[in-house]
TrEMBL record:
<dbReference type="GO" id="GO:0046872">
    <property type="term" value="F:metal ion binding"/>
</dbReference>
<keyword id="KW-0479">Metal-binding</keyword>
<dbReference type="InterPro" id="IPR036663">
    <property type="entry name" value="Fumarylacetoacetase_C_sf"/>
</dbReference>
<keyword id="KW-0378">Hydrolase</keyword>
<dbReference type="InterPro" id="IPR051121">
    <property type="entry name" value="FAH"/>
</dbReference>
<comment type="similarity">
    <text>Belongs to the FAH family.</text>
</comment>
<dbReference type="Pfam" id="PF01557">
    <property type="entry name" value="FAA_hydrolase"/>
</dbReference>
<dbReference type="GO" id="GO:0044281">
    <property type="term" value="P:small molecule metabolic process"/>
</dbReference>
<dbReference type="GO" id="GO:0016787">
    <property type="term" value="F:hydrolase activity"/>
</dbReference>
<dbReference type="InterPro" id="IPR011234">
    <property type="entry name" value="Fumarylacetoacetase-like_C"/>
</dbReference>
<feature type="domain" description="Fumarylacetoacetase-like C-terminal">
    <location>
        <begin position="108"/>
        <end position="286"/>
    </location>
</feature>
<protein>
    <submittedName>
        <fullName>Fumarylacetoacetate hydrolase</fullName>
    </submittedName>
</protein>
Length: 289
């Protein structure tokens, strides 16, 4: 099922969509305000998130889709967002072109151990509709559309859409600058919802597309499929959780395969729409930070 977290008059609410009907789970139980609340209660009750939500819909108000779109905020309060890199061949090629040390991208693409890096805290993660950031000290910036894995206590509880906004010029100058290329104000967006694994047939068979609009014109429009990914979600989770006590809620972005070619440069005023089949569309404007 599809779960949205809403911010309504300063209060959090949790909704679930089943088929074409959306229910306000917070109206059924005021203690359920976030996806994390629901996941925690389901775990204590030894039931699945979807089964618990289904039971609650019997006492829940129905809300319309427009209301959900208008109030949707980040779909899960992940304490940490991490990201995998060079998980698609095109990303490996693009990094080779940009980098002063291209061999390391080739090596990690072929290696057993994937590249996994820290991406964002809640303070750096923006909600659907809000502006992602491009750094003022960066010359070349891109959005990176990625499938997001939602984890609770290191177990996969859902999938979302993510944008690993990045400075290509800072990363290209020296790989040791990766944290500055990746982690800064408004560097990440996730949303619009979390979809539980029961509703995602195969996370490795999902169409993913991105459009970028500038001054009312579409200047980028491309699509790919997560079947192009050389890593599995389980493999990424396994490396992420090794010898690493992870927070109760975390998101791992699985890497990008839609790379706008140079001289494309993301700019303040652009609008980025990323759609992942069966999950939804994550839309953000762009600002300079
Ligand atoms: O190694 C740099 C980052 C790669 C990345 O973010 C991606 O492939 O999506
Ligand atoms: Mg990325």
């Amino acid at each position: 099922m599809h779960y949205h977290q809403l911010a309504v008059s300063g209060e959090r609410r949790l909704t679930v969509s089943r088929g074409s009907t959306t229910y306000d789970l917070t109206s059924a139980d005021a203690d359920l305000r976030t996806f994390g609340d629901l996941a925690r209660v389901a775990s204590i009750a030894r039931t699945s998130i979807d089964r618990l939500a289904s039971e609650l819909t019997e006492d829940a108000d129905v809300v319309d889709e427009g209301f959900v779109d208008q109030h949707a905020t980040v779909p899960v309060d992940a304490e940490e967002v991490w990201a995998a890199g060079v998980t698609y061949q095109i990303s490996e090629q693009a990094r080779e072109e940009e980098s002063s040390m291209p061999d390391m991208y080739l090596d990690v693409y072929d290696a057993d151990r994937p590249e996994i890096f820290f991406k964002a805290t809640p303070s750096r993660t923006v909600e659907p509709g809000d502006a992602i950031g491009v750094r003022e000290d960066s010359e070349w910036d891109v959005p990176e559309p990625e499938l997001g894995i939602v984890l609770r206590r290191g177990e996969i509880v859902g999938y979302t859409v993510g944008n690993d906004v990045s400075s290509r010029s800072i990363e290209g100058e020296n790989p040791l600058y990766l944290p500055q290329a990746k982690v800064y104000d408004r560097c990440c967006s996730i949303g619009p919802c979390v979809v539980t694994p029961e509703d995602v047939d195969d996370p490795h068979e999902l169409e993913m597309s991105m459009t970028i609009e500038r001054d009312g014109e579409i200047i980028y429009d491309d699509a790919t499929n997560t079947s192009e990914m050389v890593r599995s979600c389980d493999e990424l989770v396994s490396y992420f959780t090794r010898h690493n006590t992870v927070p109760e809620l975390a998101v791992i972005l699985t890497g990008t395969s839609l790379v706008p070619e140079q001289p494309f440069d993301l700019q303040a005023g652009d609008r980025v729409d990323i759609t992942v089949e069966g999950i939804g569309t994550l839309s953000n404007s762009v600002t300079t930070v």
